[in-house]
Amino acid sequence: MTEELPAGTGSRTAQKKPTRVDMVATALRNEILLGTRYPRERLGELDLAEQHKVSRGTIREALQRLAAMGFVLGEPHRGYSVREFSHEDVVGLGEVFAMIELQAVRSIQFPVSPETVQTMRDAAEQMSELDLVRDFDRFWELDRTFHGSLIAECKHPWLIDTWRRQQPFLNVITVPTILRPGVKYPGEVATERHLKLLDAVVGGDPEILQRAIEDHYHQHDTAEVSPGALL
């Protein structure tokens, strides 16, 4: 029986026409990424509904989606605000993802399957075509496909589920790297870094792979927190 892959892995599905909720969520997400919305800024449903010319119900659904992705914070009786994370939070979350991936590879029977290698390679190479700010959704999808395919090789449902539950916070360690002040982070760089990790996966040497995973996630340690970005 084929092991079920974590959400976000596998081939790209046919594009559906975006709904109003999709469009509002994307617009708000981009405002947060590009610094138009600031950390702790309140996101009033009525004001946003008037701004986007949609119902408050549409705004509420969009905010709920952004909360699930880790971009905004919802509080009872206070509504939603742009989520704020410290630099220490970014580094700590990077370490969490590294630990999950390290635990997974300790359980993998190497070599990994050719299908997994090809899926990871395809995802990494497609990153080079992206503008990582404009195409953030696609980049996030490819990144989840790359890492999720590797995680799935461990065959441990609880570890796969742990990885899946952490996905909303992947934005927290990705955004400051992409939006590092004064530094352009093109898709080609993302491809290079993911292919470097894939080389270690294909090589199958546990020590080399451990260092590659740590290096891959610890690149976020030096990311500066942009005052107008998510963090």
UniProtKB/TrEMBL annotation:
Keywords annotated in UniProt: DNA-binding, Transcription, Transcription regulation
Single GO molecular function: DNA binding
Chain segments carrying region Disordered: 1-20
Pfam families: FCD, GntR
Annotated SUPFAM superfamilies: GntR ligand-binding domain-like (SSF48008), Winged helix' DNA-binding domain (SSF46785)
InterPro entries per the UniProt record, alphabetical: GntR_C, TF_FadR/GntR_C, Tscrpt_reg_HTH_GntR, WH-like_DNA-bd_sf, WH_DNA-bd_sf
Protein name as annotated: DNA-binding transcriptional regulator, GntR family
Organism of derivation: Arthrobacter cupressi
Organism placement in taxonomy: Bacteria, Bacillati, Actinomycetota, Actinomycetes, Micrococcales
